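Target chain:
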Amino acid sequence: MSIESFTLLPSFTDDIFANRFNQIDKVFSTLTGSKPLSDVPPYDIVQLTNTHHQLVVSVPGFDENELEILVQNNQLKINGKKFSNPQILKNNKFIHQGIRCRNFSLNFNLSRHIKVKNACLVTGLLKIDFEQQSPETDKTEKIFINTLQKNKSTIAK
């Protein structure tokens, strides 16, 4: 029996830079110890059972209506678009602003047998549940043999 492994290979993009630039920037930032230019929200992938997994994305400050989850062509797309509130920015002077609520886009390649079941937003964590379905081609199907009497045929004349 062949079991296809759970595949969530991340590829990241944001509103300003292309994916390749973000990857190169991350490599150089790791080597030099400086902070990368792109801020992709941290995430965890948790295996709940053999067939159930959960993606947990940290999205502090985002409301449900500012997040969009799409599945298209075996690709999971999570978009966060923060609606700016000019009144808060105008009335408040930040001494330190450590919570970044920037627009983001996360893309994950899904195996064709991985299905997104549901999503919920709880205390700044976006939780997306997945289920690994067994492929139809791997299921055993029994084919019954019809017995025909000599004089009877099912072929149309």
